[in-house]
Amino acid sequence: MALCAVAALSLTAACGGGGSDDKGGEGGASQADKSTVKLPKLKGEKLQVAAVWTGDEGKNFTKVIEAFEKRTGAEVEVTPTGDNVATFLGSKIEGGAPPDVAMLPQVGVLNQFAEKGWLKPLDDATKEQLGKNFSKGWQDLGANNGKQYGVYFKAASKSLIWYNAGAYEAAGVSEAKTWKEFVKNAQTISDSGVEPVSVGGADGWVLTDWFENIYLSQAGPEKYDKLAKHEIKWTDPSVKKALTTLAELFGKKELLAGGNKGALQTDFPKSVTQTFDSTDTPSAASVFEGDFVGINVANDTKAKIGKDAKVYPFPTVDGKAPVVTGGDAAVALKDNKGAHALLTFLASPEAAAVWAQEGGFVSPNKNLDAKAYPDDVQREIAKALVSAGDDFRFDMSDQAPAEFGGTKGKGEWKALQDFLKNPKDVAGTQSALEAAASKAYKD
């Protein structure tokens, strides 16, 4: 069950059963070098792949692509899309020059593209890999109207609090199990002389993740699903309750690194690095976000994961601990041999193992050997995700039309940034959210 899996994130190897199948036992590198899936020879063929990843993530994805090139002989060019993936790809498609394969970080965009007829259904070889390696929940996320289009290559466990162990120890606080305890701890940390919570408010998607975890735990999965589909309005009392709860943190500037103004000027990478810029007196004591925080900690700070940088599950609000996930789905925009071969490879354990051993990555592939991950922290996060089975909820904003849930300066991103600026205006935030949602969902 998901609750057992989340409990494991105390990261002391609890609840280890039910995670990814530790079958091979030969470590990550050896699984990356295995050939469990047959791929065609593609020497002389050129493919273009569009993906949002840059920096360290881009480098690690390139290693996956290089493994595919080695296996098939194909030449693959990776093109960055920027944050507005739907806009970038839409212009390429309408201009008659789409990439062969795209990595879509939003299931809402996948559904939009499928309904426009822009995506090519998976071939039998890829569907075979999906059936072997992925739970029904992850397969369903890549389907539209009964047809399978997407392979969720990279997932994200987005219900985690990462914290500076030294700051917590100095303040005399421990990992919070409830929201009430989390806010109380933040005040105690503030009183100790360290700013408690680092918020990457310059990136609107970070704020949507804050809201979604509170809403899922407080309102429950049924209402979460309805709000995700806009079957209930953003003016609903459940949204008011969740925003009011979030304002218990956002409404006290002494609890935010840099205050509300500073949080609005802090992007996601900085929100991580300022939490781990010192083991004695860091700029912040904790940061909320997904497992991918690990890559920023490992590459951009001197903190050691599991020692200086620790992690625990997002605290419960009124209900169960939330299990919110995200993910990037590989889809084919061209119906050719190379595109389908790449999707088949990305659905295999060996493709996942290439990136897993580099860190900063979690795969929903249940046959990826847990030993592929470089440390116990990432290993336990991955086990928690896989052992949740179908008992999770996908990122709500990523299910929405991109105009509402995935565009800078618009929709949910903009409304929640305005809320961070003025957390007292719950009603105004609800009205702005509902107006933007109605327009995007074409109510």
From TrEMBL:
Claim: ATP-binding is one of the keywords in the record: no
Listed A to Z, the keywords are:
Transport
UniProt KW Iron keyword: no
Q: Tell me which SUPFAM superfamilies the record gives.
A: Periplasmic binding protein-like II
Q: List the InterPro entries hit by this protein, alphabetically.
A: Bact_solute-bd_prot1, SBP
Region Disordered, annotated ranges = 16-36
Give the source's domain of life in one word.
Bacteria
Q: Which family does it belong to?
A: Belongs to the bacterial solute-binding protein 1 family.
List the protein's name.
Sugar ABC transporter substrate-binding protein
Taxonomic source organism:
Streptomyces abyssalis
